[in-house]
Design brief:
Strand content: 15-25%
Radius of gyration: 39 Å
Number of helices: 17
CATH architecture of the largest domain: Alpha-Beta Barrel
Oligomer: single chain
CATH superfamily of the largest domain: EAL domain
CATH topology of the largest domain: TIM Barrel
Helix content: 40-55%
Length: 482
């Protein structure tokens, strides 16, 4: 009986163990299925990731193809139009001037047929590289189609500035190209449209630039053309003046004109204003205001100023003999000149060879040219003062004075612009300026005194030193001597 009971217990235990083994085998099967499913899911996700990466690379390649011209590596027309839209928006909002230029390579289809497609593309690429070296970082150059290129020139100081870009491009394209040891020469025409004068939207500006391009192509000997004929005339004159300024023999065409500064109390000449004019056989007599902005850009003003100082050296001895030796010989300079890194050193070298005391030289600077940055001139002014040069600032109104800045400069005198003298109601301004100079321990020179009534009015206000037609017309230095 006991044995039977034990056998029953053992049978129950074995049955239970079998059941447990059965359950564990099912769990293992479930785990295997789960693992297989998990592996399948991971594989699918990996496939998707790889597909997405391939799609992303394709998208980037597609975007790059849309952003860059495959032949020249220049920005695509889409990028050009996007930048042009941004420039148009800023131009309308802030009143900025910008230009659009269309450029066409003459007879490129013929050149392309002779060279072959591959060499033609190589030539276009080289053309793009040369032209890209002619523009600023803020400009955009793009190949529009075939042999048509577009330029976007934002933030132009004046419309005719676009002509300088056109000239640089044309000068670069005059140099021959070497394509696989084959010498190739090309010609091009450019059409220029300016915002806002030539249109207030891109379609109009593009159309007008294209029209100007057609005019340039049809005009023999004229390789760029503005849509606006007035700007075209101005730009042509600017180019002619630029030619005069950049001439190797510029000093041969310079003429020195003089006018006196007179102390009306003693009736003595106390100063002689010397200004350089350019006497061009085609353009005629060019004043400093005609050529200064170009000469400054080309760093030629120091050459002209050096020539003026040499003219003074030549005539000082004769002035002494005639008993008209002035207290100062006055020459106009600009804030941009004085701020040039080599200006003070150049003047010091020139005056080191002078036959007269450097303190005889006076430089006059228009306050309008540095009203916002006079503090940056202080170091240059101090260095010039150390050399011995007299310094003056010409002012046209209290609004241009920037008194807190000008009072920091080591000045000898202030000059009142003739615009102040023209109006009798400016007596209040004149009186204020007179008091200002007295407080600064300076004297004052008034220019543009062309009528006897003006002279009397200024004398009544206590001004002594004046210049203008009242004291004689502007004369060449040779005529002034007599």
């Amino acid at each position: 009986m006991l044995l039977y009971f034990v056998l029953c217990i053992v049978t129950i235990i074995l049955s239970y163990l079998s059941y447990l083994l059965y359950l564990r085998s099912h769990e293992l099967n479930d785990l295997r299925k789960y693992a297989a499913n998990l592996e399948s899911d991971l594989l699918q996700k990996q496939i998707k990731v790889e597909e997405n990466a391939q799609f992303s690379n394709l998208s980037q390649d597609f975007a790059l193809q849309n952003a860059v011209d495959p032949v020249t590596g220049l920005p695509s027309p889409q990028v050009f139009e996007d930048r042009a839209q941004q420039t148009l928006y800023l131009g309308k909002r802030f009143g900025k001037v910008f230009g659009i230029i269309f450029l066409d390579i003459h007879d490129f289809s013929t050149i392309n047929k002779e060279l072959g497609f591959e060499k033609g593309n190589h030539l276009l690429s080289e053309i793009g590289k040369k032209m890209h070296g002619c523009i600023r970082q803020i400009d955009t150059l793009s190949r529009y189609r075939d042999d048509i290129f577009l330029f976007l020139l934002p933030q132009l100081t004046q419309p005719e500035t676009a002509a300088y870009v056109a000239q640089r491009v044309l000068a670069k394209l005059q140099d021959p190209f070497y394509i696989d040891e084959q010498l190739i020469s090309i010609k091009a025409s450019l059409g220029i449209a300016i915002f806002p004068g030539d249109g207030d939207n891109l379609n109009t500006l593009f159309d007008h630039a294209n029209n100007a391009l057609e005019q340039a192509k049809s005009s023999r000997g004229l390789q760029y053309h503005f849509y606006n004929s007035d700007i075209q005339k101005i730009s042509q004159r600017e180019m002619q003046i630029s030619g005069c300024v950049n001439s190797e023999n510029i000093t041969e065409n310079l003429v020195c004109y003089c006018s006196p500064q007179v102390n009306v109390t003693t009736n003595h000449i106390v100063g002689i204003n010397m200004t350089a004019y350019i006497d061009d056989p085609i353009l005629g007599l060019l004043t400093q205001s005609d050529y200064q902005h170009i000469a400054e850009r080309e760093n030629k003003m120091i050459i002209i100023l050096e020539w003026l100082i040499k003219q003074a050296m030549v005539h000082v001895a004769e002035w002494q003999k005639q008993g008209v030796m002035p207290d100062r010989i006055v020459m106009p300079v600009s804030a941009r000149q004085i701020q040039h890194k080599d200006f003070v050193e150049s003047i010091a070298n020139i005056l080191s060879n002078a036959v007269f005391d450097p303190r005889l030289i006076a430089f006059e600077v228009a306050a309008d040219s540095f009203a916002d940055s006079a503090s940056t001139l202080q170091e240059s002014f101090l260095r010039l003062k150390h050399i011995g040069v007299q310094l003056a600032v010409g002012v046209s109104s209290l609004g241009h004075l920037a008194l807190q800045k000008i009072m920091q400069l080591p000045l000898t005198y202030l000059k009142i612009d003739q615009r102040v003298v023209l109006y009798a109601e400016n007596e209040v301004i004149l009186s204020t300026l007179k008091g200002l100079t007295r407080s600064m321990d300076l004297f004052m020179v008034v220019e543009g005194v062309d009528a006897e009534g003006q002279k009397e009015m200024l004398q009544g206000l206590g001004f002594e030193v004046m210049q203008g037609k009242c004291f004689g017309e502007l004369k060449t230095i040779q005529s002034f001597m007599h």
